[in-house]
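Posting this for the archive.
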Amino acid sequence: MHTTDQHAGRWWHMLADGRMQCDLCPRDCRLHEGQRGACFVRQRVGDEMVLTTYGRSSGFCIDPIEKKPLNHFYPGSSILSFGTAGCNLACKFCQNWDISKSRDMDRLMDEASPAAIAEAAAANGAHSVAFTYNDPVIFAEYAMDVADACHARGIKTVAVTAGYIHDAPRREFFAKMDAANVDLKAFTDEFYVKLCGAHLQPVLDTLAYLKHETDVWFEITTLLIPGKNDSERELRAAARWIERELGTEVPLHYSAFHPDYKMGDIPATPSATLTLARQIALDAGLRYVYTGNVHDEHGGSTYCPSCHAPLVLRDWYRIDDYRLLPDGRCPDCGTQIAGRFERYTGAFGPRRIPIAIHHA
């Protein structure tokens, strides 16, 4: 049995020169003895890959599902959220950089087994568990084990991810997920290379895979950064690609950038930019487009794509009115709204509640 900091990692092979190649994500890190990958949490120890953050978290909170953001996955429900440390991208605008860029494993004060997390979710009335704050791709083995424990108790699982993962682990990872929010950071490879240390195509591959080969409910988020990924040309190209390759039913969230990490000199996203991006996507045929990180009831609410009746009125993470039928149909015209729905009994609310995981 491995201890929490010596858990065997998967998806790797040995090279002819004696190095070990990690096959989890497109970075393809090649490791000598003792070296860690770019994510900093996957390490070669002898002839084994070790996931150094298995069973350890940067903290647990109960959130509204809308904070992930997921607007069409059991709206108003609560979700237990947690992450670990590290990341396989190097985004200069990271909003959770204190966690994702941490090389200080002492940050991971909260230890929790998969069973303890599932128990905490049940005890706190959480409908789902989210792997978030940093990218769950890099702690896939831990997330997958937690997902198994959650499913055994009837609790759903959600991955909040940049989708930067190779095909084989992608299939195994998402087989354990009920929903995902995929961070499409931009629609140019130049942006990914210069600002994330990554590439666009693997993310598009993940989105296409989710749409065409799984039953995972997924939504897309793009953080609009002034002057970097918010040109009308790029917004139109992204919306057209989503409409053509993923269909009109995939919810798209445009969220506001706030100066942070290594991009403190970039101004916050003007609300007019979010409104324009939303309109461009709607004009491209997408049915459910949202603005985020701002107070914008119109941009945050769900409308019937057929009769345009307001169905779920939101202001930021707060639900002010909910009119969907239990099966997700519009009460006015009967149109089926895409997503996962059940009988609405009231919203969890916009607050975030930190919790402690208790060990047996």
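The radius of gyration is 20 Å. The longest helix spans residues 232-245.
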